[in-house]
Amino acid sequence: MYKSEYLNRVYESIVKRDPNEPEYLQAVREVFESLDLVVDKHPEWEKAGLIERFVEPERVLEFRVPWVDDQGKVQVNRGYRVQYNSAIGPYKGGLRFHPSVNLSVIKFLGFEQTLKNSLTTLPMGGGKGGSDFDPKGRSDAEVMRFCQSFMTEMARHIGQFTDVPAGDIGVGGREVGYLYGQFKRIVNRFEAGAITGKGIPFGGSLARTQATGYGLCYFASEALKKQRNDSFAGKKVVISGSGNVAQYAAEKCMQLGGTVVAMSDSNGYVVDERGIDLEKLFDIKQKRRARIRVYAEEVPGSEYHEGCKGIWGVKCDIALPCASQNEMDAEGARALVANGAMGVFEGANMPLTPEAIAVIQSAGLLYAPGKASNAGGVATSGLEMSQNSLRMAWSFEEVDQKLSGIMENIYNACYAASEECGCPGDLMVGANVAGFLKVAEAMMAQGVV
Ligand code: NDP
Ligand code: 2IT
Q1: What CA–CA distance (Å, rounded) separates 417 from 433?
Q2: I need a surface site. Which of 152, 158, 205, 439 has the fewest CB within 10 A?
C-alpha cells in the first residue's frame, strides 16, 4: 500500500490489533500516505520505533458514568479520555457528548488533535474524551448531574500540567461550566488552566467561543488570497452543521463579504438564497435549542429539506463542512464539483471520506484538512491557558488578532511543507507532515518513553 515497508508493517500491526476501529484506522491511513513522502529521509525513526509509538496512545481511560434522571431512574453511560501524546505539552483536546461516541471515534480524534496542536505553534500535546451520553432533550438539571458524575472520575486524571479538556460536539459553555464547578470542588483549588472554554467570569477567554469558526475563515482567506488571488467577497457559501463551529464560521463569512446560503443539523438543512439570518439562527440554536426546521417555519422565502447529505447539492463557491466525521462522501463532493465550487475547508474533524477528498483534490479545488483549518479553537484554548497562568485577561481584539496571526502561520507552515514534499498546494500533505515533524523531533529527543 505504501512505498515504505516500515509504514506497511506498522499499519498492518494496528489493523491486527484494533480491527474494529474504522475511524481510527481511516485517520491513520491518511496521515501515513503523507508520511510516505518523508519517511525514507529519516531512517532513525524506524530504529527508535517512533511510528509504532506514535500510533499507540500513551494512555486510554474508560469509565462508568452513573447518574440519576429527572424521573429518579438510574442511567449509566460510558466515559472516555484518551491521553494520546504528551511529547510537546500536556494532553489537550475536547470532550464530545454524543450517542455515536466510542473508542474508535475518541482515538481518531486524539490522533488528529496531536498533529493539530503541533501545528498551532503552542506547547500542547494531544488528547480527546467524551461519552455516549446524549444531551438532546435532557433538562439542565440532568445535564448538570451527568457532568458532575463524569468529572468525579475524570478529575483525578486532569490538571493544568497534565491534561486539559475543553468542549466539542455536545459540550459547550453550559457543560464546561458544570464540569469546571465539580472539578474545583473535588480538587479544592481554583486551577483555571485545567479546563478551557470556561465562562468569561471564571477564567474563560474572550473570542474562544468564536475561535474555531473565525479561525476557519481566516485560514480559508489565506488560501484564497495566496493560491487564487481571491477572497470571500461575493462568494456563496454552504456550511453544514449549526453548532458552535458552524455558527461562527457563518458570522465571519458574512463579515468578509460572503453569503451563507445553506446550513444544517442532524435532521435536515435549510436553504435561504438571500443569506441566512444569523440573529434568527442564533436564537433558534443558542437560546431555544430547537431544530433547524424552525428556521424555515419562521423565515419566509427559506426552504427546509429533510436529511443532511443533500446540502452539498446546493450551488455554492465555497463549502465549509462543520458538523461531524464522514459527513461528505464522494457523491456530495461530485455535486460540489459539478456546481463549480472552488474550495472545501474543513471546520469539523475528518468530515470528508477519503473518496470525497480524492474527488475534490483531483478536480483541482482548494482543500484544507480540519487539523489545519479548524485549529483556531484549540489555539485559542492555548491562549486561554496562557491568560490563566498570567492571571490576566486580554481583550477580544487582542485574542482575535493573535488567532488570525496563528492561522496565517499554520497556513504558511502547511504550504511550505507541501512544497518540500514536492506537491505544492496539497495542504493535506503539508498539514500531516508539518504537524508530525515537530512531534517526531520532540519524541526522538526524549528517548524511548
Ligand atoms: P456542536 O455540538 O456545537 O454542533 C454540532 C453540529 O453538528 C450540530 O448542528 C449537530 O446537529 C451536527 N451534527 C453532529 N453530529 C452529526 C452527525 N452525526 N450528522 C449530522 N450532523 C451532525 O459541535 P461543534 O460545532 O463544537 O463541533 C462541530 C465539529 O467541529 C465537530 O467535528 C468537532 O469535532 C469539530 N471541532 C470543534 C471545535 C470546537 O472548538 N468546538 C474545534 C475544532 C473542531 P444536531 O444538533 O442535530 O446534533
Ligand atoms: O477538535 C478540537 O480541536 C476541539 N474540539 C477543541 C479542543 C480544545 O482543547 O479547545
Answers
A1: 7
A2: 152
Asked if residues 205 and 387 have their Cβ atoms less than 8 Å apart, the reply is yes
d(CA 50, CA 46): 6
Nearest ligand 2 atom to the CA of 117 is 3
Residues 6 or more apart from 387 whose CB is under 8 A from it? 203, 205, 393, 394
What pLDDT sits at residue 285? 98
Ligand 1 pocket test: pick from 245, 269, 325 the residue with the most ligand atoms within 8 Å of its Cβ.
245
Nearest CA to ligand 1 atom 4: 243
> Residue 113 contacts by C-beta under 8 Å, 6 or more apart in sequence?
84, 92, 93, 94, 126, 127, 128, 371, 378
Distance CA 227, CA 93 (A): 31
Q: pLDDT per residue over 248-271, tens digit each?
A: 999 999 999 999 999 999 999 999
Name the residue with the closest Cα to ligand 1, atom 15.
324
CB count, 10 Å around CB of 44? 10
Residue 321 alpha carbon to ligand 1 centre in Å: 10
Three-state SS for 255? helix
pLDDT in tens, 152-192: 999 999 999 999 999 999 999 999 999 999 999 999 999 99
Backbone angles phi and psi of 239, in degrees to 5: -125, 120
Which residues contact residue 160 at a Cβ distance below 8 angstroms, ignoring those fewer than 6 apart?
A: 90, 191, 192, 193, 194, 385, 388, 389
Ligand 1 centre distance from Cα of residue 336 (Å): 21
Contact (CB, 8 A) for 218 and 403 = yes
Which ligand minimizes its atom distance to the CA of 324? Answer: 1
As given in the structure block, the three cell numbers for residue 398 are: 487582542
Output the CA 134–ligand 1 centroid distance in Å. 13
Closest protein CA for atom 4 of ligand 2: 94
- For the annotated catalytic residues, the residue numbers are 128
Query: Is residue 296 within 8 Å of residue 270, measured between CB atoms?
Result: yes
